[in-house]
Amino acid sequence: MDSLQKAIWKHNKVVDDSIRLDSIARKKQGGVDAPVNYQADDSLVYDAKNKVAYLYGNSNVKYTNMDLSSDRISMDMDKSNVKAMGTPDSTAEGGIKGKPVFKKGSDTYDTDTIKFNFKSKKALINNVYTEQQDGFLTGMKSKRDSSGVIYLQHGRYTTCDDPHPDFYISLSRAKVRPGKDVVFGPAYLVVCDVPMPLAIPYGFFPFTKSYSSGFIMPTYGDETARGFYLRDGGYYFAMNDKWDLKLLGEIYTKGSWGLSAASNYRKRYKYSGSFFFSYQDTKNGDKGMPDFTEQESFKLQWSHRQDSKANPYSSLSASVNFATSSYERNNLNSLYNPQTMTQSTRTSSVSWSTNFSSIGMSLSSTANLSQNMRDSSIAMTLPDLNISISRFYPFRRKKMVGDEKWYEKIAMSYTGHISNSINTKEDKLMHSSLIKDWRNGWQHQIPVSATFTLFKYLNVNPSFNFTDRMYTNKVERSWDEASQTEKCDTIYGFNNVYNWNMSVGLSTKLYGFYIPSRKLFGDKIQAVRHVFTPTVSFSYAPDFGASRYGYWDTYQKTDADGNVSLVSYSKYANALYGAPGKGKSGNISFTLGNNIEMKVKSDKDSTGYKKLSIIDAFDINMSYNTAAKVRPWSDMNINLRLKWWKNYTFNMNAVFATYAYELDDQNNVYVGTHTEWGKGRFGRFQGMSQNFSFTLNPEKLKKLFGGGDDEDDKKDSQRNDDDDEG
Prior knowledge:
The protein is mainly β. The longest helix is centred in the first third of the chain and has 27 residues, at 2-28. The two termini are 80 Å apart.
């Protein structure tokens, strides 16, 4: 083994010496003027006869500021040529591994095949891909001259960094000066690999990596009220290629002055926007004189847009346009802009949302502002926040072992809403009180529900809904007998207002089967199935108008005629989310549902069956109000739905009164308190309604006009006995 290693070492040494000696000889004869450094991970083979070296496996060649990496490289030292290419590999992307990467100075080129000459510094490239500032260039065939200029044929230019972009400009020919510009001949736009009818004969793309700051010269003039001025002078800061800043100022000889700041920002595939703020201190007239006035005004504009691909879980957008009512009157630019001066309403909004998918919670918030420039009124909401937690099971085990427990089926969710708004004047906005002047509140809604099965056949669906409201004030009312008006007294402090309701439903299904006599009906009718679905549900809510809750109150009213009455009112009637209603509710509803179907042999398939609907639905509904002291039973509703053909449906609804007519002492007829059933009669018929519907679908149209088969009928004919079980 030692002798084999020595032999390999001697062979490589001879190869290295021969290449090194050849490089030196070429340098003396006017060949390459710098050493050529090379390496290969797998192997190096030297053809001494043709003076060609072959490098295999993660190879690299460096010459001055040229760096070439590839899986396979061949060097012809006699002609000063180097050629690089990848190695076919079915497991690699594109079927080629180790494609050449050519670096020259600060420019990088990804290629399929490249030939480079050390002496002339020219190259021939196939399928080149390079980035130039914010753009990406590719070309099927390319040539590079000694100065670094690249000539492309059948190329494309795009701003998308995806190797397979959704859009690009297809270039028939192009000349690329790295870091400077691209000049191209006939070109056209391609979107999603579809050429668009938008072509140009030639074009030009500049590449500039430089940006500069500098002074902005002011303009001068004369204004009657404020005197001579210098305005719109300042400095421009070119911070970087993502944002800039412009600071401007203005000054008047009679003491007025102003400052403004403007900025534009953009981060590709993330966000973009602009910001503007201006402040003015305006003095009109001479100081010390009766007509002297001083007024401060400002303007704020902000526009922000987030790219939809930047963050799938969070977004922010803004469109702010706020200015004091005096700003446009004092700004010279607005004086010559009729649209700005006549604008009576300004609106601003900022919205933000985020999603925490791991816990199922989402947050969304908006801030809105509406200005009326004519009367300086403002309507603002800051903030309007929504919090939502999707349904979850608080008692469910993380690791399920065995059967699911009954309490693990309990589900709940949460919805919260916070709002804070005000309607005021512009000069009072910053001096308003959050508690006394702003209208605010916080509402919580927590629904809890579950689904259980009792005794394997009874389905039980209980639910509980809780709503809570938080306010910072309440209004107590009284009657002023002297002025004959209602007086309102607002009491500030924390107030919690809640209400709840509950319901529970119980249902099951009973099946009955009837097999018709074979002597009368033959064997075409296999069976008739009757599904009977009784349902009982109960709902309850207490009386939140009771005095123990404190949400409702009364006061005594005596009018001008001396009539006395008791007026009931809610202390939170004008609150943001209102108040719970008065009165207890308790309702028990009964539903008897029926469905009758028949299974017959299919005429299209001798081995299959299909279902025919005899009565699609026949439902009887009634309810009983446990909170009602008089006539607690509702009228009876009967609904019938027939679907004897697939696309035709007949519906009928009939109402029967529960309580019978009675006669009072004056022999007048009225609805009494005794039921028709108690008198041995069926409910009194009140009326009915019917409708007939027809469903037209593409399959039906095809059958009517195209002569095709109705695919749904074919599917129906393939149903077997298993469809009718349970």
